[in-house]
Amino acid sequence: MSGLVSVIADGAAYGMLLLLFSIGLSVTLGLMRFINLAHGAFAMCGGYVATTLFNRAGLPFLLTLPCAFLATAAIGIVAERAVIRHVYRMSALQQVLFSIGLAFAASALATIIFGPQQQAMLLPDWLARQADVGGVRIGGYRLFLLASGIVAAAALLFLFNHTLFGARIRAAVDSRRTAEGIGIDVDRLFAVAFALGAGLAGLGGAMSVAFLGLDPTFPFKYLVIVLMVVAIGGPGSIGGSVAAALGLGVIDALFKYVVPEIGSFVIYALLVITMLLFPTGLAGRRA
Amino acid sequence: MKGLARVDPGWVMLALALAGLLLLPDYLLLFSNLFVLGIFALSYDLLQGHAGIVSLGHAAFFGIGAFTAATLARHGLSEPLLGLAAATWLSGLVALVVTPVVVRGNDFTRLLVTLGIGFLVYEAANKARALTGGADGLSDFTVGPVAGLLAFDFLGRTAYVYTLTVLVAIYAMMRRLAASPFGLALRGIRENVRRMPAIGAPVRRHLAMAYTISGAIAGCAGALLVQTGSYASIDMLGFDRSADVMIMTTLGGTGSIPGVVLGAAGFGALKDYLSSVSPKYWQLGLGLVLMASVFIGRGGLAGAFESLRRKLGGER
User: Residues of B at the A interface (Cβ-Cβ below 8 Å)?
Assistant: First the structure.
């Protein structure tokens, strides 16, 4: 029983990371119709920023997280303004090729700079310790991930549902032309949304090092599950993404624990079935 | 000049391939691998270039063909032509079965569904160790002589002739198919999927047929690779191979039959050479080329040749 609880806690922590990885992709896909298979590269980038600052510069762990966010957001906005915004209007095939190329290049750069090995991150004591929650022992870092995930989800929901920025984004997702018609600078909105998404992915990447590990294959390793979160949650829907990320994280962990023989199977079967029954995602916004 | 322009570029490539047989006798196995890639790229081009379906899981069919051929050979049915036919048939059948799942939804959902199917097949193969050898692959089989006459040799002469013959046959078939009413209907679907039903074209049936044929040819390519290499491994149906086929088809020039064969051969040769010299710089270079390819040189190699030919024609 306590095993099951800790598996669910694991899954939920994983789900929180998935949420951070995928929120930017959800927004770019919903807003710009940009199929970005390289979104995981931003998460990887955040991971490397954090490990470098933590291991080489000796920065405290909590300080590396905002640094990872800012650095990745900065890279995101530069890439968006310089190159990526020209890809929005292209066909799905061109976007897929471009973003696969970007993911290849990012992964190769990471290998060249940091080497192919796993990056280690030795957590501070207060995070590495096991915590006792209602008689069940759960890793402190899992709790940290869960708590920050809840904060992030709440902040995102607030940002998208209760602020002017969020209203503009939702308007542009629903109808770009009308949004431009009432004077919303959609082009600038794209850039800000892209940077925010990249930054959040970088933050997720930084937080995931001690949980999922980090090596140059990162952009491809989590490509499918991140795409699944977006597809199932419905592109452009924040609430949908939160639900999908949590759900997928828990389902994945549960099946790998209960029926390890077919564990990795279930998640892909789930993807195909969901796409058949709900081609626009569970939240059902038009993408 | 005009006469030259009318010659099917396939003849030029065939001449080059045969010149390779005489000039580079040490590289025949590499050549036969390139021919296999050409067949695989042709199968994918039918989907992407002609019907406009982007798939991220096409290696599934390649792998099904590969393991069909390997399994038959393991059970004593070592005649390669039989294995080839069985692999083509079975992978075509699987493609037909999954068609209703693929031929619906928009580009994004289709991308995810093909990706999902690709990973499902990969995981299945990974788990079915008895059938596929799991991560170790299969090499405990021998392939008999082609049609009972041509035994596979170490130099790869038989492999060369065998794969080139199949490539030429499929090339000719694709040429015919692209020019047929069916091929034209596929192009119509690619250009405007909404208008096709209005002129009475059964869009779903056409797409289903294209997907089935494409899967069958991909399986044929997989079987050829296994038979000429006497080795089958599960990375034959992995995501990397699905991405590779998409990349080489696009760099060769989607929708151009000679272009994709040339693209596949060029990509295969470069990958064989560069990834052994320096895998990380190969990956970096490939990524940069891909990113650049969507901005410059649309239409790939075939597009570049086409504009070159137009320029030459214009000067005259």
Answer: 48, 54, 56, 101, 104-109, 111-113, 115-117, 119-120, 123-124, 127, 239, 243, 246-247, 250, 254, 280-281, 283-284, 286-291, 293-295
pLDDT in tens, A26-66: 888 887 788 888 889 999 999 999 999 988 888 888 889 99
Q: Does the model's ipTM exceed the 0.95 cut?
A: no
Both tokens assigned to B59: 């290696």
Domain that holds residue A102: 2-277
CATH number of the domain residue A111 falls in: 1.10.3470
Report the 10 Å Cβ neighbour count for B165: 12
Give the DSSP H/E element, type plus range, for residue A138.
Answer: strand A136-139
pLDDT tens-digit map of A170-196: 888 888 888 888 888 888 888 898 999
Whole-number Å distance between alpha carbons of B275 and B283: 8
And the tokens for B56?
């991220």
Within 10 angstroms of residue A127's Cβ, the number of other Cβ atoms is 17
CA distances (Å), A10 to each of A7, B202, B302, in order? Answer: 5, 49, 51
What residue ranges do the domains of chain B occupy? 2-238
Contacts of B239 in chain A (CB under 8 A): 220
**d(C-alpha A137, C-alpha A123), whole Å:** 18
Residue owning tokens 């994004």: B108
Rounded to whole angstroms, the Cα distance separating A121 from A131 reads 20
Which residues touch B205 (CB under 8 Å, ≥6 apart)?
none
